[in-house]
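Quick one: structure tokens for this chain, please?
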Amino acid sequence: MATIKDVAKLAGVGIGTVSRVVSGNGSVSYKTSVKVNNAINILNYKPNYTARALSSKTFDMIGIWATESSGAFNSTADANTNSPLKTIEHEISKHNKHCILIDGDVSTPNNPNAAVQSFERLISRGCDGILIWGFGLHPKEVIQLEKQFPNISLLNNKINMIENKCFHYDHYAAGKIAAQYLLKNGHTKIACITGNLNTDDGYARHNGMLDALKEYGIQMKPEHIIEGDYSFKCGEQGVKRLLNQNSDFSALLCGNDSIAMAAISTLSKEGLSVPNDISVIGYDDNVVANYTSPPLTTMRVPFNDMALFSTKFLLNQCYGLDLSISYDFPVELVVRESVKNIA
């Protein structure tokens, strides 16, 4: 296994220079940084963070490794409700600690290890613990990182081998409840615009929906399933695709509220009324959901509670605190005006 000395020798620089490049602290010229990073890649050098994690020395810093698709960078709040990110920040500052946020949506086909490297960058910047929020890291990568750096918690993610560090809700049950509500209101011709089905949460909520339909003896048509990425754009494009292929559906189940809001807007532009022509149900209960036209019926998920307790768990782990922890996060159907009863 390559050492920092090997990297320094190959790059033709001192050990201190390699350390500054790895940590991101200190001044290093662009040319030197390129040489060091090239040497790191050639040697597949991995900093040993185990000793750092087990050290009694702390830096009063918590890292937040997050991805845009997780909602970390676009979550909203009103005067009465904090966003999950603010909930995390407030709990950390309450105990006189600080936090640093890094975007984990950095891996590309040309650099598949970028997400792991961004996680390691948080460690090198002195983070005592890291909250992982999003799915940019493969579960196997998370397990490996946890072995090197145990001070982690996972928000809205579940990995069985470290389940005590995972704070999540039942996505399967939430998807099933949403579909059951449409069915009870007489909708048997249901289409959906999902989130990313390669993620555990997207896959689970989708299966919950499909199983609810099966219990009613309904098999969803493959052309009624549009896979998206939780964005407004995919909501717009998904609706247009359904309409262009003349899909026969009376209700649309959306992977999140952003998709649902875009769907309502697009349906309106196409001359269709929600809910008189098409019923729409969302997922998350974004603060804006109550102000759409019509107000959006959606699944409320306890994201702020998960954010709070995942942060408390991490503070306990890093600083020996004894803050109360809960793993109970029930979901709730919020009925507004975007679903019509046609039974």
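The chain has a mean pLDDT of 89.
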